[in-house]
Design brief:
disordered N terminus, alpha/beta, 19% strand, 10 helices, globular, GDXG_lipolytic_enzyme, Rossmann fold
Length: 355
């Protein structure tokens, strides 16, 4: 794990004007605020003010973390995983993916985690970042497959959902050759990727007869009728994600107003969650998706499925990958990997002993 990097002196953090006291941004922890200030200095533009093509070239919060780490004297820990770029079949052709495997693992098939990245279905790179996949592989002793998926508006809904389901179907055949156990697979994702992970947890089991052992979601996109968990005006200045950004992304994704009620988008309105595996839901306090995340948690709980929900205060959307510089991200990653590891252990302990 990377060492946590102390913030720069306080004077360097006071250059930007303080947000209004009634703004959600006033609640930011100091380390999260510093990441966002660094991000702003990298000439990032709110996505709603640019085009999808240009949005994909914007620096993200992980780029801001990298800028901070450049100034640090802390040494990163020795790499204990190997990472390669592969192609996996999607519904509309091959997709780029990361394949991460822990080094020096015990013999026998390993658990597998499918990590589905964020980007609000629009703004991500074709190849996912390595930060979270490497962390998951290292802490869980698991193979991690992190596929890209087709982006809107060039490929509107339901292209990304079809790609994610296609990856699950492929993995059920490819798990053993990859050195993994198809009966020991977890689904995980953030933002739009969390939406995809939940859909695959439901539809993938129906399509293949194999259910995931755990579902881990961070700040999911859970509905298209956007109802922030705060007075609407207060989320306008939220960064990196405000209400205008969410609505911009949904306009790129959905071609027809009817799509907003599709159960793959309107997760809050679904009632078929009883078959979900054990679920972990992590939410950020300063995120216009907080309200729909809480509503989704309630819907899953009402169905009788097992869910653990945590709201991390003082951090914004996109915090999860920032453990090298944001304390709450370290706690969130520890919670996520602890829950994943417990699910994997329970599966192994339930298997009959070999003669």
């Amino acid at each position: 794990m990377n060492h946590h990097v102390p913030l720069l002196p306080a004077a360097s953090r006071l250059a930007a004007p303080a947000p209004a006291l009634d703004s959600p941004m006033a609640k930011l922890d100091a380390d999260m605020r510093f990441v966002l200030e660094t991000h702003a200095r990298m000439r990032s533009v709110p996505l709603e003010l640019t085009s999808p093509r240009l949005a994909r070239r914007q620096p993200d919060l992980e780029a801001a973390m990298g800028r901070i780490l450049e100034r640090s004297t802390a040494r990163p820990s020795r790499d204990t995983v190997s990472c390669e770029r592969i192609s996996v079949p999607g519904a509309g052709g091959d997709l780029r993916a990361l394949f991460v495997r822990p080094n020096n693992t015990a013999s026998g098939p390993l658990p597998i985690i499918v990590w589905l990245h964020d980007g609000l279905f629009v703004s991500s790179d074709a190849t996912p970042s390595e930060t979270v996949p490497r962390m998951l592989a290292q802490r869980c002793g698991a193979i991690v497959v992190a596929p890209g998926y087709r982006q809107a508006p060039e490929h509107p809904f339901p292209a990304a959902h079809e790609d994610a389901l296609a990856v699950w179907k492929w993995l059920m055949h490819a798990a053993a050759p990859l050195g993994g156990d198809k009966h020991l697979v977890a689904l995980a994702g953030e933002g739009s990727g969390a939406n995809l992970a939940l859909n695959v947890a439901l539809d993938g089991a129906k399509a293949t007869g194999v259910s995931p052992k755990h579902l881990m979601m961070v700040s999911p996109v859970a509905q298209a009728v956007h109802e922030p968990d705060a007075p609407t005006g207060s989320w306008r200045e939220a960064r990196p994600l405000g209400t205008a950004t969410v609505r911009w992304a949904l306009r790129q994704l959905l071609q027809d107003v009817k799509d907003s009620e599709d159960p793959r988008i309107n997760l809050v309105g679904r009632k078929d969650y009883k078959t979900l595996p054990e679920t972990t839901l992590l939410l950020a306090e300063i995120d216009p998706l907080l309200g729909e995340g809480k509503a989704l948690a309630a819907a899953i709980a009402r169905s009788g499925a097992s869910i653990e929900t945590s709201i991390y205060d003082g951090v914004s959307h996109g915090f999860f990958a920032l453990a090298a510089v944001v304390n709450k991200a370290m706690f969130a990653q520890a919670q996520a990997t602890s829950r994943l590891n417990r699910s994997f252990r329970e599966r192994r302990q339930s298997l009959p002993l070999k003669a």
